[in-house]
Amino acid sequence: xxxxxxxxxxxxxINGIVYVVESLKTHLEAQGHEVFIFxxxxxxxxxxxxxxxxxxEDRVIRFPSIKGPFYDDYDTSFFFPPRVLSxxxxxxxxxxxxxxxxxxxxxxxxxxxxxDTPLVAQHCTDLRxxxxxxxxxxxxxxxxxxxxxxxxxxxVNGKDIRELMKLYKPRRERVxxxxxxxxxxxxxxxxxxxxVIALSRKSKKQLESWQDDDNYxxxxxxxxNGVNKLPAPTKSExxxxxxxxxxxxxxxxxxxxxxxxxxxxLDLLITALGKVAAERPHARLMFVGDFEYRxxxxxxxxxxxxxxxxTFTGAIPREKLGAAYAAMDVFVFPxxxxxxxxxxxxxxxxxxxxxxxxxELSEVMEPGVNGEYASKxxxxxxxxxxxxLGNAKKREAYGKESKRLAGAFTEERQVAKLARLxxxxxxxxxxx
Length: 432
Fold this sequence. Notes:
By secondary structure, this protein is of the alpha/beta class.
């Protein structure tokens, strides 16, 4: 198959969607398929960016872009749709797969519509949770721009236009207006697709709950992204990591790996440390990752009574993350806005016990088997962490089960499932 992947975030950005797109490209090509990525350049000079990243410009088609004003990690891209459409026609794609409902993602939707190509959507970003979190209304211009694009990007009828026009009517409550736009726009877009992928039970239920009209129904396939085990660090590499970040052998480390975004509830981990350290004096908190909210977290950490027991490593290349996981005793993921949590799988494969708040986020988590759920509060997290940090045997047992559960979702296995979904979408499309 000749496959087009359309994403609004890609290298040099570092986030879950980037890892997913790279993984799919690698494993689909290993299976003999041809893969083309359409993405922002994070620069006004796409060719220069491609040269810096040492990538094949014929396989990675980049658009000039600048930092996006509305969505974290999404750039604002500049392109001439007819030219992109001409490129897509030349490639003669068998299927188009998009990951984000931004400019590039919607270009993929438009290209599928105009070239009569099967279209697959992957629900990677929980926009509803984002608009609930960012209640200042800053996302509204971007959402209104999204629905303005829809009549040009998808095949619409009179009913579709009437539904879209309703979304322009201002609501007294701006957050609810944002939510209405997200739910109706996403439902309309996905109803025009040939397959829709949800990465978690949470996302599957959410998408199905928005389908309140027979004309906008579509099937949702639960298919988490596959994750492979990271290289384990050598003893010397682990020792060097501990020394670099002043982590003692007797320290009890709980930590988070990922983008340090404001919507991920990371603040409560700093507060939780104060409660945990009161009973576990060797407790230590480690944040691995970077983003704009890191500065805020560092400021809060500096004001904490246990500031000297909070570590910020910054971003670490994925191939070297094994040492970070190996230095932890428990992995904590407090976010409720993620659609899967790639790092949760990585941590499980690294043999770590898990502490999560979102009960329907991950297929590699079973409470009482390889981890525990906590309530969405510092006290709730601390109440789970204190006994877990104090019980080495339970942590070891949980760690073994984490490896077992996560081992069922390898990149190779999940990409093979995705390839079959592509084939089914193509066959069903041809039959119609």
